């Protein structure tokens, strides 16, 4: 089995480095990092201490009801809007768009999202040998054309058996299980970041260093400052001063900024989330799911 940090870690769907990085891009495109912060703020967790991560790939979701929350969010129409805007234009796709779309559908099925029939039928057509041969001829280096036989079979089975509302399992071994099967016995271990992937470097008794993928990095580990609480500037975290109120985003009527410059800097992070739902729709969604991240006894898990 290949080293996850350096390439693919399995032959199944969503088990390659390219698919992992593409899923991370979708996480940003759907504003899932900011969604986590907003939900955290909605329950009064101003330090963002709730242990969670939201991703379109169910395997990378963690925290209380994280899969259900992401599924509900995408099912509000966010997923369908994204598809209509980026992939349902009827034009000939580039070598990357076909691969990205395949990863998107495979991921949202892992969450159990409502899969629009147009997305399902389009992926079915893309699995046809004639289509794949065409992609290979036009784009010989396309990841879509080079998809492994096992991954293709898994997609075919998923499209045949998938039901909305039921997270789909492709049967792949989890990352932690893959690592445990290797049964390493290192003399020391050090965690570092390698191209947006968290890697643990294991030093073996013979001095050889073996890197292993251990999961996606946290916001702080990649230099991203938490974007909430919502009563301070989203960029520099400055609060309101006497005689000077924070500016409010004209789109979502929610995020605040101390200056136009700070708003401009934060727009790359905020734009997808800002446009996902109207202010009233977002309020309704947050009110409807915030109970899902509160522990029954009223306590919250925190980072050590």
UniProtKB/TrEMBL annotation:
Keywords: Metal-binding, Zinc, Zinc-finger. InterPro entries: Znf_MYND. PROSITE patterns: ZF_MYND_2 (PS50865). One of its GO terms (molecular function) is zinc ion binding. The keyword Metal-binding applies. It comes from the Eukaryota. Residues 233-274 form the MYND-type domain. The keyword Zinc applies. It holds the Pfam family zf-MYND. This is MYND-type domain-containing protein.
